[in-house]
TrEMBL record:
Belongs to the nitroreductase family. Keywords: Flavoprotein, FMN, NAD, NADP, Oxidoreductase. Residues 28-178 form the Nitroreductase domain. The keyword NAD applies. This is Putative NAD(P)H nitroreductase. Its cofactor is FMN. Binds 1 FMN per subunit. FMN binds at residues 20-22, 47, 51, 148-150. It comes from Ancylobacter aquaticus.
Length: 203
């Protein structure tokens, strides 16, 4: 019997995983992925563990002129949804909604668990999370910066209608992808040892 062939180590991938960090959407500018890179990213995104192959997620691409168009609609929807809010505060947040897509490319990952499937909805939602993570890693491997966000635009009913997210679907993440305008700082990372135990028999 021939011995199994070991997959060659990929130190560059390890270094990328060890150093990847997010960049706030406001700090993401052109260049972003071109059409081929965007297609490749989506293929990478879909290459995630998916119990029973349900593909319980889908994508919405927001790019080019659609970014300001959707921003204007979200801004208006935010005002309409918050009539009681102090006007200055409402305008501040409405303006943020208007500029919500500063990066050249945004990919919305929509989680859509299959109802009645034998696979629990939780597992299907985890698969949508894996899709988001693959997008972050894939973008980093292409030399781009990115961030995974949610917030009002990903959760409020009016915003979901604008995005085109239906009943029974939820936004797992909005992935903003581009190039950092400033050298991004890292954040403190968790103490992995403090979060890790080794199982031993109880008693
Ligand atoms: C499901 C999910 C939703 C998030 N939503 C937001 C958000 O709306 N706004 C935000 O600033 N960060 C949000 N974050 C956090 C950022 O994606 C990111 O974790 C944080 O900026 C630190 O980045 P890094 O650990 O990738 O470097 C979210 C993270 C997850 C997993």
């Amino acid at each position: 019997m021939t011995p199994p062939t070991r997959r060659p180590p990929a130190p560059e991938t390890l270094a990328l995983l060890e150093a990847r960090r997010s960049v706030a959407a406001a700090g993401l500018a052109a260049p972003g992925p071109d059409a081929d890179q965007a297609r490749r990213l989506l293929a990478i995104a879909a290459r995630v563990p998916d119990h029973a192959m349900l593909a319980p997620w889908r994508f919405i691409v927001i790019e080019g002129a659609a970014r300001s168009e959707i921003g204007a609609r979200l801004s208006e929807a935010y005002r309409a949804a918050n009539p009681e809010m102090v006007p200055e505060k409402r305008e501040k947040f409405a303006a943020i909604m208007g500029r919500l897509f500063p990066a050249p490319l945004a990919l919305v990952v929509v989680s859509r668990p299959v109802v009645g499937a034998t696979i629990p909805a939780f597992e299907q939602e985890l698969s949508a999370g894996a899709v988001c993570m693959n997008l972050l890693t894939g973008a980093a491997a292409m030399g781009f910066d990115a961030i995974w966000v949610t917030g009002w635009a990903a959760t409020h009913k009016a915003a979901l209608a604008i995005l085109g997210v239906s009943e029974g679907e939820r936004v797992a993440g909005i992935l903003h992808i581009g190039t950092a305008t400033d050298a991004p700082a890292d954040r403190p990372r968790p103490d992995v040892a403090a979060l890790t135990t080794h199982w031993s028999p109880p008693g």
